[in-house]
Design brief:
GO terms for molecular function: glutathione transferase activity; maleylacetoacetate isomerase activity. This protein has 230 residues and is α+β, with helices and mostly antiparallel strands. It is built from nine helices and four strands. Helices cover 53% and strands 9% of the residues. The protein is globular and about 50 Å long.
């Protein structure tokens, strides 16, 4: 039975944008596993697979359902051990946990300050209402105010990327000569911004930008197949 990956989209079902879904999409390609994509908007997620999860990604593999990107990566690693490893061993799994923690506490909040209004604008009408209400409640301000100073926030973000920059300036991927799940974790955030928002923040010559281009090209250009927002 085919593997199904449930992914988050806006009005255009051909443009999945969730950072967490992109982690899993590349993890499946890394493992060489065929899958089909099933898409949903924010307000449709509670109805997926009998309400098994409030979030995507959700992976169905035969009779097995797994939700949340890291749990899915662990499932794939354990279920398909003879295919290329996502972690390169237990130490790599633990280090990937650190990378995920750093990414979600440093990169994702900064990117949200750039892209959240653009994300709202690509959603369908029911999802726009949900997204605006839930995010403005969380932020304590309007989406417009939340992104108003985004140009001033570029330099602090670039400085915060120095740990990543120092590594990918020396080697092609966080995983070394080839990517591991740690790369897909960080890639997901940048792909979220790329697909959702035309706002440019990475200088083309930045080692992080060059690493991101290498990630976009992986697996016959899996990431690049979805054009950047214009």
């Amino acid at each position: 039975m085919a593997i199904t990956l449930y992914e988050l989209v806006g009005r255009d079902a051909a443009r999945p944008f969730s950072p967490h879904c992109w982690k899993v999409r590349l993890a499946l390609r890394h493992k060489g596993l065929d899958f089909q994509s099933a898409t949903a908007g924010f307000t449709e997620i509670p109805g997926l697979e009998g309400g098994c999860s409030k979030i995507v990604p959700i992976l169905r593999d035969g009779e097995t359902l797994v939700a949340a990107s890291f749990a899915i990566a662990e499932y794939l690693e354990e279920t398909y051990p003879n295919r290329p490893s996502l972690f390169g061993g237990e130490g790599g799994r633990a280090l990937s946990r650190f990378v995920e923690s750093w990414s979600q506490r440093t990169i994702h909040p900064a990117l949200a300050r750039f892209a959240v209004l653009d994300i709202h604008d690509v959603l369908g009408e029911p999802d726009q209402a949900y997204f605006r209400e839930s995010r403005e409640k969380a932020f304590g301000t309007t989406l417009e105010s939340f992104v108003a100073d985004r140009a001033d926030r570029v330099e602090p973000l670039l400085k915060s990327l120095e740990p990543l920059r120092a590594i990918v300036a020396r080697q092609p991927f966080l995983g070394g000569d080839g990517p591991l799940f740690a790369d897909y974790i960080v890639f997901g955030g940048f792909q979220w911004a790329r697909v959702s928002s035309p706002f440019q923040f990475l200088p083309a010559e930045d080692p992080v930008a060059l690493w991101f281009e290498r990630c976009l090209a992986l697996y016959d250009g899996e990431g690049a197949k979805v054009p950047a927002a214009a």
